[in-house]
Amino acid sequence: MSDTLDYGYMMHKAMQGLLKNILQQVAEGGLPGEHHFFITFDTTHPGVDMSQWIKEAHPEEMTIVMQHWFDDLAVMDDRFTVTLNFNDTAEPMVIPFDAITTFVDPSVEFGLRFDSYEDPTPPEPQEDDTDEAPKGDADVVSLDAFRKN
Questions:
Q1: Residue 108 falls within a domain, yes or no?
Q2: Where residue 12 falls among pLDDT bands split at 50, 70, 90?
Q3: Contact assessment for residue 34 and residue 40, using Cβ atoms and an 8 Å cutoff
Q4: What are 63's strand-pairing partners?
Q5: Is 143 a residue whose pLDDT tops 70?
Q6: CATH at 81
């Protein structure tokens, strides 16, 4: 356990949770009123998945707009997927929440800025069944000596 509380990381995760909730509501009920989103993300982040031609056009960073036409929005714990219209072509995308740098809803002047944070907790060691300790001989203790005759 650390000697300090990592408030920056906790706030980062809380903001990701807020974004996840927003996208989940939109996935279930669509965009209400005049709401629309600008989502900027790091296209080099592990887990980002998009057509090669889009990645070539945006080799480091990209901003997508979710407004009039988007489809198949699905939200998972660590990412979301959405299909967007690029030049009258439906293009599916996978965007991990850790790749997102900004989220803006200009219709209500709301925005989030995500700084990059790494999980401060080290991963727990995985048990490996292949490295079992060699089994030795066991001592057998007889309980007869402790029984009353």
A1: yes
A2: confident
A3: no
A4: 40
A5: no
A6: 2.30.30.220
